[in-house]
Amino acid sequence: xxxxxxxxxxxxxxxxxxxxxxxxxxxxxxxxxxxxxxxxxxxxxxxxxxxxxxxxxxxxxxxxxxxxxxxxxxxxxxxxxxxxxxxxxxxxxxxxxxxxxxxxxxxxxxxxxxxxxxxxxxxxxxxxxxxxxxxxxxxxxxxxxxxxxxxxxxxxxxxxxxxxxxxxxxxxxxxxxxxxxxxxxxxxxxxxxxxxxxxxxxxxxxxxxxxxxxxxxxxxxxxxxxxxxxxxxxxxxxxxxxxxxxxxxxxxxxxxxxxxxxxxxxxxxxxxxxxxxxxxxxxxxxxxxxxxxxxxxxxxxxxxxxxxxxxxxxxxxxxxxxxxxxxxxxxxxxxxxxxxxxxxxxxxxxxxxxxxxxxxxxxxxxxxxxxxxxxxxxxxxxxxxxxxxxxxxxxxxxxxxxxxxxxxxxxxxxxxxxxxxxxxxxxxxxxxxxxxxxxxxxxxxxxxxxxxxxxxxxxxxxxxxxxxxxxxxxxxxxxxxxxxxxxxxxxxxxxxxxxxxxxxxxxxxxxxxxxxxxxxxxxxxxxxxxxxxxxxxxxxxxxxxxxxxxxxxxxxxxxxxxxxxxxxxxxxxxxxxxxxxxxxxxxxxxxxxxxxxxxxxxxxxxxxxx
Length: 610
Hints:
Layout: H1 21-24, H2 37-49, E1 55-59, H3 66-77, H4 99-103, E2 110-114, H5 121-130, E3 141-146, H6 153-164, E4 170-176, H7 184-187, E5 191-194, H8 200-214, E6 217-218, H9 220-230, H10 234-248, E7 251-252, H11 254-261, H12 266-277, H13 281-293, H14 298-317, H15 329-341, H16 344-362, H17 367-381, H18 387-395, E8 418-419, E9 437-438, H19 466-475, H20 479-487, E10 489-495, E11 498-503, H21 511-523, E12 528-531, H22 540-557, H23 559-567, H24 594-598, H25 604-609
Parallel strand pairs: 1-4, 1-5, 2-3, 3-4, 6-7, 11-12
Antiparallel strand pairs: 8-9, 10-11
Helix pairs in contact: 5-6, 8-9, 9-10, 9-11, 12-13, 12-14, 12-15, 13-17, 14-15, 14-16, 16-17, 19-20
């Protein structure tokens, strides 16, 4: 995007008024357009072969360049350089006879109309009457109608005949943000171009080049914030950049942009995500309050949290999704770690809860309190298994069945009053809803003294395998420790209550102490952890990678897979999944979840069978 010959200075040379960046660096040729290569290619081929349509429809979100493209197209239709070029073209390396007037919106043969304020049939009649006359000086008389969807039904109908068979010297260019409101009868008479949102990395490059020309210092994180807030709109990004320059007095840093936009600190959003996935409610609420105190809106924090959840999910299911120029390196690394450790069901559940929570916050009179409740809900369910997982744990015997809290139905109660269950009424009268005691045939015996209830001690958790220990840490949602166990521990000896391992080179020095302390706190039993040398085993991550490589190698040797790879050159085996392998469903004993699993079914026979 280059201002070219029409960019002028920072201030208008005629009036001395300040010219905003969106006008100063407005594109003046097809080469200056950013992110619209498919449209430019189509127009280039059409102009070179003489297949120039009588009407064009430009659509897209605000700020992607619809009106600017219409002016450039009008310039290309009337491009004239005496002695050099005298035909329609999209290659305009220098100013033509009509270029300056067209791009400034003051050419007599290029008529721009705002359909929002000129939307009646009378305005269309004026166009119909005027198209009969040839242009005054240009090659074509061009009508540019902005926001054409605002025309009335009668105006659209009055335009149809002229739009279908206009005089040879007339061209129509329409622009709209609401393409669905334009009648099909009009769309069928136009050549339609959908202008795309500009990608964030290209917006960052555009903003960087403009700040360099303006002599403004800006850091990379601030550029990424502005590009992200613009949502693909070049005009919005330049307006925000203009505001940031004024806010920072010539030097723009991330903190200034964050305060100006009311955004949350991205690093703290990642910290908030980690606290939620670990079920650490006080830490999560403290992080939200800190963001709120420095000016971030609770709804914006949840939106950023949802965006990060979406990014982690994409990185989990789409290889290479982390190659995003708008993400900082630390954010990309942590998102990759979350994608490797968090199950897809947890990410999906978090996404759904955040979407609903954002609506609640936006409609609440107390946004911070509403956001607190959303975070509490997410953190509360973070360490709960899904119903199907809890049922599998119960059926596999990893969870003991809950002890019955009421007397067995087969036991015979002592004779005495028979209770009549209350109905739907209330209390305080002897009508429906009051529990009555119906006397038995003989005097009621005195109620027996209640038997003392002795709490049954929870069975100790005994990890039979190192994999069971890692799974237990994952159930506790301690993601950093789970990743460390998978990637930085080479087991030498493992027994119930004892772990001896050799750490990898990048393992933290406190890893053994952290493992012992956390397992002792969680299980209530002393857990011995020691360091050693000479481990013959690999880490879990290394074993998994080796197993994946072996599976891919075995798959390549399969005749059917080999035939498919030969049929499609360049195809690769991304993953191998063995159907019917239930080893992943094996779970470790978690006594604390027994009550939850016991409530999954109301069928007594199924509970007895389990």
